[in-house]
Amino acid sequence: MTASLMFDGKTVESHLAGMVAAVGPFPPDFISRVENPERIFTSDGFIKDQPRYKGFSLEGSLTGSPSRPEYESPLSEEERRDWLAFIRSMLKLDPRAKKTARKLLEHPWLQGEYAYP
Questions:
Q1: CA angle at 62 for the pair 58 and 117, rounded to the nearest 5°
Q2: What pLDDT does residue 71 have?
Q3: Bridge partners of 68?
Q4: Which residues of 22-47 are buried (b: 16+ CB within 10 A; e: fewer)?
Q5: CA-based Rg of the chain, rounded to a whole angstrom?
Q6: In sequence order, which ranges of 1-117 are alpha helices (DSSP H)?
Q7: Taking a C-beta distance cutoff of 8 angstroms, is the pair 82, 109 a contact?
Q8: Phi/psi of residue 102, nearest 5 degrees
Q9: pTM
Q10: Engineering a disulfide at 50: which of 4, 17, 27, 86 sits with its beta carbon 3.0 to 4.6 angstroms away?
Q11: Which DSSP state fits 65?
Q12: Which residues of the chain have pLDDT under 50?
């Protein structure tokens, strides 16, 4: 569904920084459960020594990128909105906040008119 890779994955830190760009900083209660969190995290939940991605968003990933400006999403505005809501319901940095597979199957994106038979 996207025009480019969301996370470059060259290092663990760069991968985590991409995740933060997509869904926001890590919550304090999550960081508190990490061993030696000061090695990786800043006090506000970002990743140490990593650039803060500016202008990146899940929405933007559906509409192309500077490296592929010709990309045009096959989704309508309504489909993009529903798809993004579905993806966001899965992309939670804290595993305890993630929905179960059963709950995800009930999401309108999978139950809606764009669901394949």
A1: 105
A2: 60
A3: 65
A4: beebbeeebbeeeeebeebbbeebbb
A5: 16
A6: 12-23, 28-31, 58-61, 77-90, 101-105, 108-111
A7: yes
A8: -60, -45
A9: 0.63
A10: 17
A11: B
A12: 1-3
